[in-house]
Amino acid sequence: MKKELPLLNLVCILIAVGFVAAAVLNAINTGAELSTDNLFVTMVCMTMALVFAVNPLLYLKSEGRLPIPFVKGTAPSPQLSSSSPASARVAAATTPALLDTKGRAVPPDVKSMMSKMVPSESKEG
Questions:
Q1: pLDDT at 80
Q2: Where are the domains of the chain?
C-alpha cells in the first residue's frame, strides 16, 4: 500500500498536467476566432484536470504536507473539573459525539448521563 499510493498520485498529477497542457494548446491554436466549441473543449480539459488533481491534493492535506493559507489550527479545549450543570453542558458541547453500536450519535440527555457516570474499579479476588 505504501508503494501504490505515491504511484497513483504521480499518475493523477501527470494526467492533470496533460489536461492543462491540452487546454493551453487549445487556447493557443484558437487564434483570433473564439467559438463555443473551443470554450467547451477548454472547460472540459480544465474540469478533467481538476478531477485528477483533487486526489493528490487531498492526500497531501491529510498528511499535513499541504499548508492551507488563512486557516488556523484549533486549540484543544481545557477539561472542566467542576460538577455544576452549566459546566456539564459546556463539557458535553465540547467533547466529541458518543456513538452507539450502529455508529449513530447518542442523544444529548444520554450523553450527559454518561459523562456523570464514573467507571467502577474492578475487584480482583
A1: 47
A2: 4-63, 85-114
* CB of 28 closer than 8 Å to CB of 45: no
- Is residue 77 within 8 Å of residue 57, measured between CB atoms? no
In this prediction, residues 56-78 reach a mean pLDDT of: 78
Instruction: Tell me how far apart the 2 most distant CA atoms of the chain are, in Å.
Output: 90
- Interatomic CA distance for residues 112 and 110, integer angstroms: 5
5-64 per-position pLDDT tens digit? 999 999 999 999 999 999 999 999 988 888 899 999 999 999 999 999 999 999 998 888
Global pTM exceeds 0.90: no
The residue written with cell numbers 487531498 in the block is 58
> What radius of gyration do the chain's Cα atoms show?
26
C-alpha cell at 119: 467507571
Closest CA to 57 of 68, 48, 43: 68
Chain center to CA of 73: 14
